[in-house]
Write a structure and sequence with these properties.
By secondary structure, this protein is an alpha+beta fold. It contains two helices and four strands. The protein has two domains: 74 residues; 45 residues, Ribbon (Seminal Fluid Protein  PDC-109 (Domain B)), CATH 2.10.10. Helix content is 50%, strand content 15%. Helix 1 runs antiparallel to helix 2. The chain is rod-shaped. The two termini are 44 Å apart.
Amino acid sequence: MNDHILKSRADEITKAARQFVSETMQKIQAQKPHAVIYTQGQHNAVRALFVAAFGVIDELQTKIKTLEEDVRRLSDQSPLKYVGVWNEHQQYDHGNLCTDHGSLWHANQSTRRRPGTSKDWTLAVKRGKGG
């Protein structure tokens, strides 16, 4: 379930809970227009219901915020892109993949250096015995 759906569902639950409270209070006031009187047990039960409901909503909103941060962080990362065999005249960007001497390398940052000669590259797949 994506974060937009979770947020939408949390908003629906919040709206429904507020509407329920409003309608319940209107019904109570209509029956006893001069005072709203109910037992302490009823008060505690209603309060517990809303504490539980809003606790779930708060938890969902926290999870949604975390998911939104993850989406932002992931969208800032460079996608993996195979760009062919390493060429000394080519600029490689973070996330690029290239082959050199039969091995596959991942560019950790923008570079023109040859794979395996600096920390600009990480070996992704080592060349096989046959090359």
